[in-house]
Design brief:
Number of strands: 5
Strand order of the largest sheet: 2-3-4
Number of helices: 11
Oligomer: single chain
Largest sheet: 3 strands, mixed
Radius of gyration: 30 Å
Strand content: 5-15%
Order of helices and strands: EEEHHEHHHHHHHEHH
Shape: elongated
Length: 370
């Protein structure tokens, strides 16, 4: 299906992206518009963070560590919120509703199902780019992007690793905005790795589904597994190089990268790969593209529906208010008949004057029409 086309009204209810049944996720938000689950890995990571902060807090020079940890957690949460907003807005703009998703350590975990491949790719790209822009904003608040000078290294002057230069600032913990920027970029890098239930896996599956539409699901599964295996082998080779040299990348050592490579290799054989490809049926969407609205028409249609609904709600409130006023007028007239005009309150008198003015306007308009 060409990008920017939405399903007809009758199929909107069949194109929802629901929350997958995850036994290890807890409900966080339940409403008529969206359902959000929180993965159990979030609580595990939070527990590890609390243990680390408590263990290191008693060491000298770490008195401000709890404040830095709280600010880093808030920066990480801002990346989650922006991912969810971008994911939902792009899906909504393409004519598909996001009824719910699961939030993991890196952000959105839900894999799009029953979406065209291009829309699934675009939602993942928008969610990841939103966090990149957030990291750039944090870096701009800190003072902008300073490009470090490239000089010939000498024996007397030690050369800091790239992640400790002033342009990145990972070695300066006292700069909270720089730390927040680094955390946002770290969140995006983690989402781009094609691990299960990440945006990178969703974008890779969508690309294979769209480009290899003529291969069928079986051929697409083989291509997808081959790509994931190649990525795993590349990560393994990079891990071996780090292990031999003893270097680190942004403070990440080779054991973590080794675990990522093994998980990539194992996850390429899981059954969710075929289920995801079956959900992204691009061929069927392309055949129905002529009968579907473009994104602009969808937005205009939804804008008109929102405007009409607002008018209906306003008319309902007006009618309800008139009904309440009519009931109150009856009570005031009975009180006036029984106790006299001196018993009326100022608010009651204003209501009678307003009703009288409306009746005079109505009679004048009827006289003009006659």
């Amino acid at each position: 299906m060409p990008l920017g086309h939405a399903p007809p009204e009758s199929s909107l209810s069949d194109q929802f992206v629901g929350v997958e049944g995850d036994r290890f996720a807890l409900p966080l938000i339940r409403s008529r518009w969206v359902r959000v689950n929180l993965s159990s890995t979030v609580f595990l990571a939070l527990a590890i963070l609390v243990v680390v902060v408590i263990s290191v807090l008693r060491q000298p020079g770490n008195a401000d560590l709890p404040k830095v940890a709280v600010f880093a957690t808030l920066a990480w949460l801002s990346g989650w919120v922006l991912q969810g907003l971008a994911y939902g807005l792009v899906g909504w703009g393409s004519g598909y509703r996001v009824r719910g998703f699961t939030i993991g350590v890196l952000g959105i975990e839900t894999v799009a199902r029953h979406w065209p491949a291009r829309v699934a790719f675009l939602t993942g790209l928008a969610a990841s780019m939103s966090v990149v822009l957030l990291g750039c904003f944090y870096r701009l608040v800190d003072g902008g992007f300073q490009v470090p000078s490239i000089e010939v290294p000498s024996i007397e002057v030690p050369i800091d690793p790239i992640w400790q230069l002033s342009s990145v600032g990972l070695g300066e913990v006292e700069s909270v905005w720089r730390t927040a920027s680094w955390l946002c970029f770290l969140q995006v890098i983690g989402q781009m790795i094609p691990l299960p239930r990440t945006l990178g896996r969703q974008m890779l599956v969508a690309s294979v589904s769209f480009v290899g539409g003529k291969l069928g699901v079986a051929g697409q599964v083989k291509v997808l597994r081959l790509l994931i295996d190649c990525f795993a082998l590349g990560t393994l080779g990079f891990t071996i190089w780090l292990m031999n040299t003893g270097n680190q990348i942004a403070g990440v050592g080779w054991p973590l990268l080794m675990c990522v490579a093994v998980l990539l290799w194992v996850s390429s054989r899981w059954s969710d790969t075929m289920r995801t490809l079956e959900g992204l049926d691009a061929g069927r969407g392309d055949q129905q593209g002529r009968n579907r609205r473009t994104v602009w028409k969808t937005l205009v249609y939804r804008g008109r529906r929102w405007r009409d609904g607002r008018r209906v709600r306003h008319a309902h409130r007006v009618e309800q208010g008139e009904a309440v006023d009519a009931q109150r007028v009856d009570e005031i007239l009975n009180q006036l008949h029984q106790q006299g005009i001196e018993s009326l309150k100022p608010a009651d008198r204003q209501l009678l004057e307003r009703v009288s003015a409306n009746l005079r306007k109505q009679r004048l308009s009827e006289a003009d029409d006659a």
